[in-house]
Amino acid sequence: MEKVVDFTGRLQDKKLKRQKEIHKHRSETVQSAVQCASCQFRCAMCGHHMRETESYTLTISAHLECNLCKVCQAEYEDFLEISKGKKKADVFWHNEEWCKLWIAWLDYQKAMGEFKHSDEFTRLAEELEN
Fold it and tell me: CB burial class (10 A; 0-12, 13-18, 19+) of residue 29?
């Protein structure tokens, strides 16, 4: 009986190791997505890579700042003026859907900032460091 191999234990160990690898990969992916979304060297709206001198910093909330390229900055400023009723659309694409796009983007940025500053994300980052 001494030559009988316990496959159950080995299978469980292999399964646990695989689950840990999957968890680590998913954790790294989440952290990477959050870091990339807040990269200061790319436009937060269109993704254009910028130099420091090319960016405009938009403060969305106390916890969140986004960098915009000059084109997106101008579009954002138009959006603010139009949404406040201070200006009428002067280009054809500044329509209702365009305004909804900016509203959705702002909501996304706020949600990303809240997640980035959550206790759970902090814990995730600490786990990946160790």
Answer: exposed
